[in-house]
Amino acid sequence: MDAVDYPRALEAVWTLISRTNKYIDETAPWVLAKDEVLRDQLASVMSHLAASLRVVAHMIEPFMMETSRAVLAQLGLAEVSSLENLSLADFPAGVTVVAKGTPIFPRLDMEEEIAYIKEQMEGNKPAVEKEWNPDEVELKLNKDEIKFDDFDKVEIRVAEVKEVSKVEGSDKLLQFRLDAGDGEDRQILSGIAKYYPNEQELVGKKVQIVANLKPRKMMKKYVSQGMILSAEHDGQLTLLTVDSAVPNGSVIG
After folding, report:
1. What is the pLDDT of residues 140-178, one digit of tens each?
2. Cα-based angle 173, 195, 161 (whole degrees, multiple of 5)
3. 156 beta partners
4. Which residues of the chain does CATH 1.10.730.10 include?
5. What is the Cα–Cα distance from 49 to 72, expressed in whole angstroms?
6. Does residue 189 contact residue 174 with C-beta atoms inside 8 Å?
7. HSE-CB of 61 using CA atoms within 13 angstroms
8. Please, is 249 exposed, middle or buried when counting C-beta atoms within 10 Å of its C-beta (0-12, 13-18, 19+)?
9. Of 31, 55, 213, 221, which residue is 20 to 30 A from 154 by alpha carbon distance?
């Protein structure tokens, strides 16, 4: 098995096929068929071609089993013989090939093939991304649109969490003590307790707050002096933080 050389074997098969094609061009059997006087010559040519095809069918059998059997069947031969001692001269006697066979390798319709290839290439092309034009962007808002002057009234600052604890009597509220650059710490209550079951992890974080929101009383005894900003997505809420190097009280915006 170490001596098996598949590429050279296929090269030998192709050499025989090429020579057979050349033999067809040289003998022009379609011309011979038009002249009754040349019938014997035509029979000889066709006999040689049948013998050559039989050898080709046997030689390709290790590589193309189904094709090999199809060629032999159209030659009126059912067996796949051993390659040993196979020659062009031993075509079985008594076999007459007269039936028109179905093309084993149909001729390609070039126009159809080109159209198919183009269709496949078009289908595999990446979608052409539309050129971005901000004037055509449809903004998706969750609240009413406001004017810049309205937004300019909002003062957003950086505040450091100094202390945080759960509010007694509430499952939702956390009580924050924050340094927002006021000179004294301020207090903000935020309903985020369920998102931060270990609220102490927030101590030392620098968060963003609405600093000029009017203070309001909550649960009758707590004052909340602003609002801590957060982001919510798919039911998850996260406080908006800034880099620890940003000074407390820095204005955002």
Report:
1. 998 999 999 999 999 999 999 999 999 999 999 999 999
2. 65
3. 210, 252
4. 6-101
5. 13
6. yes
7. 15
8. middle
9. 221
148-252 CATH: 2.40.50.140
DSSP state of 241: B
Q: Tell me where in the chain the CATH 2.40.50.140 domain(s) lie.
A: 148-252
Residue 120 tokens read as: 């496949």
DSSP run (H or E) holding 57:
helix 39-60
Between 54 and 108, the higher pLDDT residue: 54
Environment class of 143 (CB within 10 Å of its CB; exposed 0-12, middle 13-18, buried 19+): exposed
| Distance separating alpha carbons of residues 202 and 77, to the nearest angstrom | 87
pLDDT per residue as tens digits for the range 53-68: 888 888 888 888 888 8
Q: Is 174 exposed, middle or buried (0-12, 13-18, 19+ CB in 10 A)?
A: buried
Tell me how far CA of residue 35 lies from CA of 32, 38, 42, 47, 143, in angstroms.
Answer: 6, 5, 9, 18, 93
- The one-letter amino acid code at 118 reads K
- The bridge status of strand 236-239 relative to strand 230-233 is antiparallel
CATH 1.10.730.10, applies to 6-101? yes
Q: Name residue, tokens 């909550």.
A: 218
Spatial separation of the C-alpha atoms in residues 190 and 176, rounded to whole Å: 8
Residue 89 has a pLDDT of 64
d(CA 238, CA 86): 81
| Mean pLDDT value across residues 180-197 | 96
HEC states along 147-190?
CHHHHHCCCEEEEEEEEEEECCCCCCCEEEEEECCCCCCEEEEE
Tokens found for residue 184? 């004294």
